[in-house]
Amino acid sequence: MAAAIIRGAGLERYYEERSEYAPRPGPSASGWNSIPVTTCDDGSREVRLVVDGLRCASCVWVTEHLLQATPGVQDATISYATGRANLRWDPELVDLDTLAGRIAALGYRPRLLGEEGKPDRGLLVRLGVAVFCALNIMMLTVPLYLGWITDLEPRYEALFRWAALLLATPVALWCAEPFFSGAVQGLKNRVLHMDLPIAIAIGVLYLHGLAATIAGGETYLDSLAMLVALLLAGRMLEGRSRRRAAEAALSLAASVPATVRRHAGETVETVAADDLRPGDLIDVGTGEEFAVDGYVHEGRGEVRMSLITGESEPVEVTVGSAVVAGSELLEGSLTLRVERVGEATTLQRMAAQLRAAADRPVRLTSTDRIAPWFTAATILVATLTACGWWLLAGDGDTALRATVAVLVVACPCALALSRPLAAAAGLGAAARRGLLFRSADGLLDLEEVDTVMLDKTGTVTRGELAVVAAEDETLRVAAGLERYSMHPIARAIVSEAARRGIPLPAATDVREEIGRGISGRVDDREWRLSAGGPGRVELSGDDGQSDRIALADAVRPDSAQAVRLMKERGIQVVLLTGDHEEVARRIAEQAGITELEARVDPEGKADRVRARQAEGTRVAFAGDGLNDGPALAAADVGIAMGTGAASSVLVADGIISTWSLMPLVAGFRASSAAARAIRWNQVRSIGYNVVAVSAAAAGLINPLIAAILMPASSAMVIWGASRVEAAMESGQP
Amino acid sequence: MNSIFFLIPIALVLGGIFAVMFVLAARDGQFDDLDDPPERILHD
Fold it and tell me: What span, in angstroms and rounded, lies between the C-alpha atoms of A213 and A137?
């Protein structure tokens, strides 16, 4: 909302300017008190921010708790998936400057909501430099390894080593900086996560490389550069998939018109929707969306409320009828008396409730949980090795070499990469098939889901009317009459005629009466097309004969296939709808769904989801309307149809970007492939470490073997991640 | 073989020039959005 206000004030250039000239955007820590915030009823202030640089679940946890511990802060929640922070504080005790300063002091960047989806250029630059250096170091060091066989002259060897050191220095000191700062922050806040073992490994590798280059021995600088490049690439892939989902959600969120035509005495002026006051009169024409809640003051028309109710049937409105923001005027023109604007509209209030529900509790990933143990075990083994060789064997030289070998081979790279790489591969595989996930959590949760609940309208069905039965000739005349109308029935008739290849006849004297029907002349005869009961229109000619066209919300062509494939995976599929039993049963039958619950209201859908969860099942819910929001939020995994209501997208873990349910099936497959790859990668990397560290502690590993083993362990993990897409391709489409 | 003392630094400098060009392009926002520009021509 703050971003909307800034845009409304014509300050959007601010964003462009500062990203152009300031590499670290965000108002300075002193500028925060001047930004617009919401004042709550009890005098406390509230604002929504996005916090950049939250890389792990523990970062979120720490920031959240630090803010909550600040005197005067009443509430502070941060969503890991979106990086959104919800702050509420008492202006008497603390101000936003202080809070923003505290977040910044942790090393994260708070900024106003609205810039979400900006790519991290800094990370890309670091990655590019790391890859460049890594590849060149490899070219230089591979001959060195071969030098053991072909007797390279010492002076060339020295040249190669120093060149490799030169290339490795920016990688260790600059490219790897995010890992060092992450580790330092973790230590400061007494939270151990994956950055710490990574930072230790990079530090040891570089210092050893530096010492060895000066002394003229073997180095592991190629492994160092490759390690940094791979870790940065993993981080970048993760960020990109999160950003894509955020972008998809944002592009849908901008659906309410920003300007309206307001009555000003005898004339009409165009003003920003935010400037409207209750009681103002505005004009709305055919095809426009309502920006505000209000009552019809003049005129009549047909309105589609699918955003709110999830049902696609148009509703007729006349003087005195209430309309809500976000619904669309299909036909007619209205003058509206404004009742509620901005945050007060039904749409925004529902969206606010959903946003609150969307910020789910923070979870540590399985890798983050392993990290402290990994670090502790490495340090313990290194200490034991040093003590063992020195005190027991009395061999100082071997003690030093074995300890270095332990620290070097206990490479956290494979472990740190095990999750992001496989998750990114899974996210990418799902995205290519039409399902965008907000975070890896959503994708990986899907693996444990055993019940899928589907909304009917817009999810299993198309969510719009389609002709189910009509004679060709009837359809031809009707399509001729309806060809210029934007009404959903008209569009269904015209597109059915196109599908059957029927040429549209010319129609003259076409008169459209809102809510009554349409009439006109086709082929020199007078025709009239009017409503003929539910799901039917009647075409009557001037000879008194009449024919019917039957319309219904049709099941998507591949819904049945999607349901069948999910059932084959052992997943229970349930249809939930607010519609009548009879309609629901027909749709369920066509889609091959045996379990269904009809006449369920929006809260009821969420209750059904919770009831299933109470039975111990994991539930995924797929739906489209704003009315599906509570259920989407309640489900373990909520999947929104990207073609549906914007706000349902805000609470969903995943968004289907095509007109089909097949992406959901792909999501299940990508999820289990990714989860399997992660488990195997963790097993592989821990197995590697146990073997390599034991051998190193026993003094059996020399630097050359270590330098071959380390990239091999990373390659193993990359190979594991690449199996995700292969597994997707080997199965059904 | 002595030529290697010139060739390796030259290779690194040439590579470095490209790396710098990449850094400048990335900082300029060249790679911010890889999806929209190819489609933009279709929307015009």
Answer: 13
Domains and CATH numbers, chain A: 2-116 (3.30.70.100), 123-249+363-424+676-730 (no CATH), 259-290+292-340 (2.70.150.10), 425-461+556-672 (3.40.50.1000), 463-555 (3.40.1110.10)
Q: Is the dihedral of CA A221, A222, A225, A228 positive or negative?
A: negative
Residue that has been written with the tokens 């740190």 in this structure: A416
> Nearest by CB to B19, which of A124, A132, A140?
A132
First to last CA, chain B: 58
- Angstrom distance (rounded) from CA A621 to CA A636: 8
Is 0.90 topped by the overall pTM? no
Q: How far is B41 from chain A (nearest CA, A)?
A: 19
The conformation of residue A289, written as its DSSP 8-state character, comes to: B
Q: Could you tell me the end-to-end alpha-carbon distance of chain A, in angstroms, rounded to an integer?
A: 41
User: What would the pLDDT profile of B1-44 be if each residue is shown by its tens digit?
Assistant: 678 888 888 989 999 999 999 999 988 777 876 765 666 566 44
The secondary structure of A336-387 as a DSSP string is: EEEEE-GGGSHHHHHHHHHHHHHSPPP---HHHHHHHHHHHHHHHHHHHHHH
Strand-pair partners of A595: A574
> What ipTM does this complex have?
0.90
Residues of chain A falling short of pLDDT 70: 1-31, 33-36, 52-58, 79-84, 107, 111-119, 145-152, 238, 241-258, 274, 306-313, 348-365, 411, 514-515, 533-534, 625-626, 643-650, 702-704, 706-707, 711, 731-733
DSSP assignments along A196-243, one per residue: HHHHHHHHHHHHHHHHHHHHT----HHHHHHHHHHHHHHHHHHHHHHH
In a mutational test of the A interface, the residue from B5, B8, B10, B43 whose CB has the highest number of chain A CBs within 10 Å is B8
Q: Where are the beta strands (DSSP E) in A523-588?
A: 525-531, 536-541, 546-555, 572-576
Q: Which residues of A touch B (CB under 8 A)?
A: 19, 23, 118-119, 121, 124-125, 128-129, 132, 136, 140, 153, 156, 159-160, 163, 166-167
The CA distance from A468 to A536, in Å, is 10
